[in-house]
Design a protein that fits this description.
With about 325 residues, the chain is α/β, with parallel strands linked by helices. It is built from eleven helices and 13 strands. The protein folds into two domains: about 230 residues, D-Maltodextrin-Binding Protein, domain 2 (3-Layer(aba) Sandwich); about 80 residues, Periplasmic binding protein-like II (D-Maltodextrin-Binding Protein, domain 2, 3-Layer(aba) Sandwich). Helix content is about 30%, strand content about 25%. A five-stranded mixed β-sheet has the order 2-1-3-10-4, sandwiched between helices. The chain has a five-stranded mixed β-sheet with strand order 7-6-8-5-9, with helices on both faces. The longest helix has 18 residues. The protein is globular. The relative contact order is 0.14.
Length: about 325
């Protein structure tokens, strides 16, 4: 009897859906069944605002404890929920092709976000989204909310809220259908969280070689390069994953375009950059993919990629970004 690969996942409907997609793909590449192991994280039980409890690791820590304790073989995370510091015992073995990284404004009648006037109630719990809403709809009231996708949509349907801000990727993975109207928010004016729309498949650094090889087959090179840059910006700013900042990178042939913005939480200031960097004529693309766990000489093949993000963070700090971050 073939032993199943145990995939640790949060219990939410969204986490189960995205883990199910990875499980199906991994079963094909590994030639083994994959079973889901539901795990409850602090973020699933603590109903306080993410800005109050601190978002860094709140959804990942318990899962990582389970992985290191041998309760499961791999984890599937929403990459934007992962702290940028990677435990030495663990490795991100795959970043599958990223879904739509944009945010979506959900309303009953399709009124654009910027036209929601005084008294309108817009729900979101992320400091970055709160800062963006205050700029896009300055006369509306921002309501700090938690809860799963369905409960947030229900609050708009009932009239309790006039709009909520959600990730397009989450709606897509859940296959959510509703009579509510969607406004896709463009990345040029509304960049999103580092890693948004991407998944991280994590396992132990000493995992069986056959498992690492099966996971590597799920990896998308352009996604890994882009999210590595985004997360390096976050790390370079020394900001947690709930900081009021956005970073999005997109690979196009042998270059990468990087947009990043740091917002003043309760004021009008913002500091941003929009740059395009070379991937050295494809050298980084040829030599910078993979998780680095099996580099023969011990070198980290993603170092040059991270340096692009760290350079972007340095430019933001030179412009005064540290004054805007908590």
């Amino acid at each position: 009897m073939t032993t199943a690969i145990r995939l640790g996942t949060r219990r939410s409907a969204l986490a189960q859906a995205q883990s199910g997609h990875v499980a199906d793909a991994l079963a094909k590449t590994a030639g083994r069944p994959v079973e889901l192991v539901p795990i409850t994280s602090e973020g699933d039980t603590n109903r306080a605002s993410l800005s109050e409890i601190g978002g860094t690791g709140v959804f990942a820590n318990r899962l990582r404890e389970a992985l290191m304790a041998g309760e499961c073989d791999i984890l599937v995370h929403s990459l934007k929920d992962l702290p940028t510091a990677q435990p030495a015992e663990l490795v991100i073995a795959a970043t599958p092709l990223r879904e739509d990284p944009r945010d979506v404004a959900i309303t009953r009648d399709g009124t654009p976000l910027h036209r929601l006037g005084s008294g309108a109630k817009i729900g979101t719990g992320a400091p970055r989204r709160i800062a963006q809403v205050r700029r896009r709809a300055p006369h509306a009231q921002v309501i700090d909310i938690r809860g799963n996708v369905d409960s947030r949509l229900a609050r708009v349907e009932s009239g309790e809220l006039d709009a909520v801000i959600l990730a397009a990727a989450g709606l897509s993975r859940l296959g959510s259908e509703s009579s509510l109207q969607r406004e896709l928010l463009g990345l040029s004016e509304w960049p999103t969280a580092p890693g948004q729309g991407a998944l991280a498949v994590e396992t132990r650094a000493d995992a069986d070689a056959s498992l690492l090889a099966a996971l590597a087959a799920l990896d998308d090179e352009d996604t890994r390069i882009a999210v590595t840059v985004e997360r390096a910006i976050l790390a370079g700013l020394e900001a947690g994953c709930q900081a009021p900042m956005a970073a999005h990178a997109a690979v196009s042939r042998d270059s990468i375009r990087v947009r990043a913005v740091v917002y003043e939480p309760d004021g009008p200031r913002r500091i941003g950059l929009d740059v395009t960097e070379s991937l050295n004529g494809g050298y980084i693309r040829r030599n910078g993919s993979g998780n680095g766990a099996n580099a023969a000489d011990g070198a980290d093949p993603m170092h040059a990629i991270r340096e692009i993000g760290m350079s972007a963070a340095h430019r933001l700090l030179e412009q005064g970004a540290a004054d805007l971050l908590p």
